[in-house]
Amino acid sequence: MRELIINPNEKQKTFFESNAKYTAYGGARGGGKSWAMRTKLVLLALNYNGIQILLLRRTLGELRENHLFPLLKLLKGIAKFVSTEKEFRFPNGSRIKLGYCDSENDVLQFQGQAYEVIGLEEATHFTEKQFIALTESNRISGNMENQSFRPRMYFTCNPGGVGHDWVKRLFIDCNYRNNEQPDNYYFVKSLVFDNHFLMKSNPEYVNTLMALPEIRRKAMLYGDWNSFEGAFFPEFDYEKHTCEPFPLEKSWIKFRAVDYGLDMTCCLWLALTEDRRIIVYRELYESNLIISEATKKILALSPRNEPIRYTIASPDLWNRRQDSGKSGFEIMTSNGLKCLQKANNSRITGWRVMRECLKGYNSLDSRPKLVIFRSCQNLVRCLPLLRFDEFVKEDAADTPHEITHAPEALRYALMSREPSFKKKSAPFSGSIYSFDNPASDNSGYESFIEY
Ligand SMILES: Nc1ncnc2c1ncn2[C@@H]1O[C@H](COP(=O)(O)OP(=O)(O)OP(=O)(O)O)[C@@H](O)[C@H]1O
Ligand SMILES: [Mg+2]
Prior knowledge:
By secondary structure, the protein is α/β, with parallel strands linked by helices. Helices cover about 30% and strands about 15% of the residues.
């Protein structure tokens, strides 16, 4: 077997020596986080016979670049890589399995499995729900010789991202809740200046970080967790903006909003009440639907006795598709979804409208202007996860992409009610359904939502 020669810097040594239940490392760019993570896991695999280790990144591409290729090089002649299982097997029975969790539910694949050690690389790219789900798999596996080993998780992280708040709360603010034990959490801060290897081999990298826009520079060069704003919609309040489903009034105007993609189709059903509020009362949220299937599902979820005034959809649906020469709009229309309207895709204006809507109250009885049925689980889940874009002020980040579909559909829906976008003839004409209550058709409707 060949020898492994490693030379960790002082911060990396501190990280290696921690045996806290949860240890996080980094907090800025280039501090040697990824190196420290994979080296620590390899040391554990070599030192503890039969240890089971899981190393996760958010996407497969990141996993490959960041860890698979360097590990293949590092472990040549030391451990065997089994590509079908994406795992390194060591002669002493230890195993390092590589995984990724592209979408929220991908963590479920690890349920029922046991790993003494789990490494979350770029932990702020994971949601708190994913982290909590993974803690269930962090236990003694039964393969390990040393049964007194204390299961643990290691994290690397930078500020920003969908998991900014929970990582900051646990490792930076040390603000613990319920049964969280302070002794379980340990943070080792490291900056690019601590990474002597990088400072020597690529000193210009510091200048690159220096040249970043101020907010990002503070975070990525100095590890400032307060420079990034957290949630994109801090106004969203689960108690205030969601409710259990209740029967809708027949007189309320109903419409739909669609964000179509093969990776995810999100359709929301919305109602406008007489007291000028919007209720999101149903959602379709499903991946891998071709356009005709998505259309059928949308129609199947819309009962005949529920007239839909119009359906607003992302403008790219009007682009011709290379395969069929037809646009998504044509495919949806030919499959029976009529009255499709192109959404106004002005992102920043749209987010502003949404923010106002979340802040707004009905002046008569102080009820919130926007209410979402709790049965719309994906919209309720994704709205608070949305983060600020790190480069475009006032825009939301488009990663992780999975969480953007439902908020975008809601943005299209609310923009269809936005005053400057209103065209009397647009959303109201040509409904395939006969509208039950023509008297209320246009009167007062144009000014339903007051922004
Ligand atoms: N102790 C070390 N010995 C040798 N090389 C190291 C060491 N620490 C870090 N490096 C090297 O420094 C470079 C940057 O390290 P690494 O990729 O781990 O940083 P990072 O904090 O993960 O960066 P990023 O913020 O971009 O993810 C890499 O080439 C890595 O191999
Ligand atoms: Mg890294």
